[in-house]
Design brief:
alpha/beta; 6-stranded mixed β-sheet; 12 strands; 45% helix; Dihydroxyacetone_Kinase; ATP-binding; ATP binding; DhaK_ATP; transferase
Length: 569
Amino acid sequence: MSSHFADNAALLPLDYLRGLTHINPAVAVDETSRVLHVREHDKSKVALISGGGSGHEPAHAGFVGSASLTAAVGGNIFASPNTSQVRRALELVKNDKGTLVIVKRYTGDVLHFGLAGESADDNVAFLIVGDDVAVGRKQGALVGRRGLAGTTLVYKVAGWLASTGASLAEVRDLAQLVADNVGTIGSSFDHCHVPGTARAEAYLKDGEMEVGTGIHNEPGLHKIAQPKKAQLIDDMVELLTSTTDEDRSFVPWTGKDRAVVMVNNLGGLSELELVGLVPAILDSLTRRGVAVVRIFVGTFMSSLDMPGFSITALRLPADKEEVILKGIDAASSAPGWRPATVPVLNPEPTKQTADKAAHEASGITAPAAFTAGIEAACNAVIAAEKDITRYDVIAGDGDCGLTLKAGGEAILAGIKRGDIDPKDVVNSVRAISEIIEEDMGGTSGALYAIFIAALGKALAQAPKGEVTPETWASAAKHALNVLYGYTAARPPSRTLMDPLVAFIDAFQTKGLAAAAAEAKKAAENTANLVASAGRAAYVDQDQLQKEHVPDPGAWGLALIFEGFASAAK
């Protein structure tokens, strides 16, 4: 992304702080110094200050509130605040108990926060957090490890302890313990774009990603060809929990540990993908003897719109587990905090999952003679997913290719399980309908499921159970009439109904090959039509005509018929 909702990119950090004062009435902003602080801090309790460059939201200001930070100082994007800003923050939270300053290990932050602390009174303690396991001891010999999302867990635990009235020394000691037992590793598909700067060339090639990503666009540990999700996560977890890598084994894992885990969005990942990472992360940690007792999932320390995520693991020392978890579980008014949850590990498989596993274990497969047409049809839409998706990005909402691919893959898996039996055509058709109903979403999934379910019912009425070409033609006509009861689309409508009706009309008199050819002609012709139904009806029709692409659903169905016909030959 290189365009942003900002008239002046330089004002974004202050706009964010102003916005937080509307979200959380317990905080106020000193606009001159860009310091967000609790309005009425209890001076009988230790205060916590943090901050750094903007662009990592909700860190740091999003964590200002009860049982968390007392104040946060915001610099320019990816630039540390200056010493005078930090001094102002110290003045705003000055109290009788003392102040703990917590910063990520970046040179600018350490220098400016440290200088401000040195010039303050003796009631200020300083803690630097570096939790990035991608930076080894050799590489970080002088500068140390970078501070990443694990820093926020230090805020959470230390902030809660401060709220109980603990002394400055007690708060700092517990914060240090958390910092010593936390590690973070990130991965991304590219760097982020800094508002106010020129569009940059892509840092990574298509199909390439980076492990050990820095949150300021610093190079990571290494670039790799994108692996399977489970493999990527396993490699990241190994970096987090290894005790044999002399350069990177920072946390004293024992192989029988309990931990708090944070799955953090680096800014540009969809919620769909982020939450979808959780099962693999929990599985990988469990296999390494780490019992996850709490998990945070969401955006806690971003890198603007970086398309990636990080995993943080906080090992819980046995003698301090109870007190750390009290801090983790404590409610906070800070809007950046999502509550931690207790994850469900190794849930009981559903009956459906167990049945599928049993089928797969049995190795039953249907003879190829009957399944050839079905396999050819499924493979046709799977192979065409990119084209269908491209058409749907132009003419719809972009999901048609993936929906058809999901249906095709699920049916192929059903064939492998033995759900489709050439000796029982009726039940095989019903099985396909059930698979589509379960595994193929979207409007097209519902239309396919309705049509094929009606087809199965009609086939079941065949005299003496004999399914002939005439039976198929009659059943298809019946199924079409059933489908008409659920959709108002009629040809020509620029929908999948165009090739479906063309196929059924031709199949009754001309046979399968000719019907498939007619369906393809009808699908091709949708490129010339103004949409009267379906998602494309909401699209700019003039632009749609200029693009001149067929309806994605129609094209997918035509390929299915073509696959059947080619296999029949």
